[in-house]
From TrEMBL:
InterPro entries: Na/ntran_symport (IPR000175), SNS_sf (IPR037272), YocR/YhdH-like (IPR047218). It comes from Marinomonas rhodophyticola. Coiled coil: none annotated. It is a multi-pass membrane protein. PANTHER family: TRANSPORTER. It is found in: Membrane. CDD domains: SLC6sbd_Tyt1-Like. The keyword Membrane applies. This is Transporter.
Length: 452
């Protein structure tokens, strides 16, 4: 590109980029949401649709995000407008990045509330408060936490501070260091928990539940949820992966890199399912327990098992680490923009943004108590923000990025960045022009007009 006046840092290696992007992708979406939506939607067939969506829609869009970021080496807004300009189009494409920044801010506000619940559960597992608890008691305990704004605020504040500190420290000292420590820890914890789940006696049942493809159980609605989730779980549609891609050097192959990230994210989701369902089954609990699966059923299950206190604590530490690295990536695109475009100091930008998202988070945690009456379109603030970001803003951002990469960016530039064989390039290009936008448009349509 002609005007490459980048002021950015770079990742130390291709593997650091892979691990940082995996840190963003692997989060509450994998460990909390994926198992419970799989449980609610009947298991195997749902998993198969989800895997197809990751491969046909998620991976190609992720390739587009990475190459746009890397080509411009700027924050998402400037990256999109620079790449558009270079392809003789309007700089207004940068507006996708503006919507992305907004999505990040809004997602963070409820994400950090759930992150706070996780921190609270680390504490209660560690102190053994959950040992021998019944499911009614666990339900009551979770309800009591939600009803207590002061406790929620404390944990939400701690989680926000933890996130801001890393973002403020910058790409190399902050995000990269956190990645180097937390990602290996995450994989080790996951393997330990998987090993533990294998000893519980419910493993075969858990495995069958996830990999027995019974299509009679698959509803149209479940397929839509699978596609929607493939976006959220890969952190697509809001410029996060684009921002991370902008810190990547030209040497690495984008296709292979992105495939690795997609594979790791998928692996973690599957292993999380394989760690959770056996524990649920061996305790005779319901796999379709919904969002409470992790905060109600699991503590009960751990509370009844040998070494449950230790492994329960490890489990919530794992979720906490995953949520933390994702939360960091939610703030990064906006901080990059404030630093590059408005010339703010990184520390000032991170703290300023942190205060805003922390404040919005208070409205989210209030949804369960003092602000329970405040609703938007019939939903409380927490549910409303979750709904409009995951179901509308990310898919919309995804469609626009796909259309931009497929129809606007000149072939020669895309080819130059992707450096792949003709066949892969054609497949990718077809996905950008048709498969991804059409699939996402169908999802958006049906999410907004649910099938009764
Ligand atoms: N991918 C994260 C998860 O699965 O929990 C959530 C997320 C992070 C979404 C960052 C979007 C994003 F930009």
């Amino acid at each position: 590109m002609t005007n490459k006046t980048s002021i950015q840092d770079s990742w130390a290696s291709r593997w650091i980029f892979i691990l940082a992007a995996t840190g963003s992708a692997v989060g509450l979406g994998n460990i909390w949401k994926f198992p419970y939506i799989t449980g609610e939607n009947g298991g195997g067939a749902f998993v198969l649709v989800y895997l197809t969506c990751i491969l046909l829609v998620g991976i190609p869009i992720m390739m587009a995000e990475v190459f746009i970021g890397r080509r411009a080496r700027k924050n998402p807004i400037n990256a999109l407008s620079d790449v558009a300009e270079e392809s003789d189009s309007t700089k207004k494409w940068g507006l996708i990045g503006v919507m992305g920044m907004l999505s990040g801010v809004l997602i963070f506000s409820f994400y950090s509330v759930v992150g706070g619940w996780v921190l609270h559960y680390i504490k209660v597992m560690l102190t053994g408060e959950m040992s021998g608890i019944s499911s009614d008691e666990a339900g009551t305990a979770f309800g009591a936490l939600l009803a207590d704004p002061a406790t929620l605020l404390g944990w939400h504040t701690l989680f926000s501070i933890m996130t801001v500190v890393v973002v403020a420290a910058g790409i190399n000292k902050g995000i990269e260091t956190a990645t180097r420590i937390m990602m290996p820890a995450l994989f080790v914890l996951l393997i330990i928990l998987l090993g533990y789940a294998m000893t519980t006696g419910g493993f075969a049942q858990g495995w069958n539940f996830m990999f027995h493809f019974d299509f009679s159980k698959l509803t149209w609605n479940a397929a839509l949820i699978a596609l929607g989730h493939s976006f959220f779980t890969l952190s697509l549609g809001m410029g996060t992966i684009m921002a991370y891609g902008s810190y990547m050097t030209k040497k690495a192959s984008i296709g292979k890199t992105v495939l690795t990230i997609g594979a790791l994210d998928t692996l973690v989701a599957l292993v999380a399912g394989l760690a959770i369902f056996p524990i649920i089954f061996s305790n005779g609990m319901d796999p379709a327990a919904g969002p409470g699966l992790m905060f109600i059923s699991l503590p009960v299950a751990f509370g009844q098992m040998p070494f449950g206190q230790l492994f329960g604590t490890l489990f919530f530490v794992l979720v906490g680490v995953a949520a933390w690295t994702s939360a960091i990536s939610l703030l990064e695109p906006t901080v990059a923009f404030l630093v590059e475009r408005l010339k703010m100091k990184r520390v000032t930008a991170s703290i300023g943004l942190g205060v805003i998202v922390w404040g919005l988070g208070i409205a989210c945690l209030g949804s369960f108590n003092f602000m329970a009456d405040v609703t938007f379109f019939g939903k409380n603030t927490f549910d409303f923000l979750d709904y409009i970001t995951a179901n509308i803003m990310l898919p919309l951002g995804g469609i626009l990025i796909a259309l931009f990469a497929g129809w606007i960016v000149k072939d020669k530039f895309a080819k130059d960045e992707l450096e792949t064989s003709d066949t892969i390039y054609k497949l990718w290009n077809f996905s950008m022009k048709f498969t991804a936008p059409i699939a996402v448009a169908v999802v958006l349509y049906f999410l907004l007009n649910p099938i009764k």
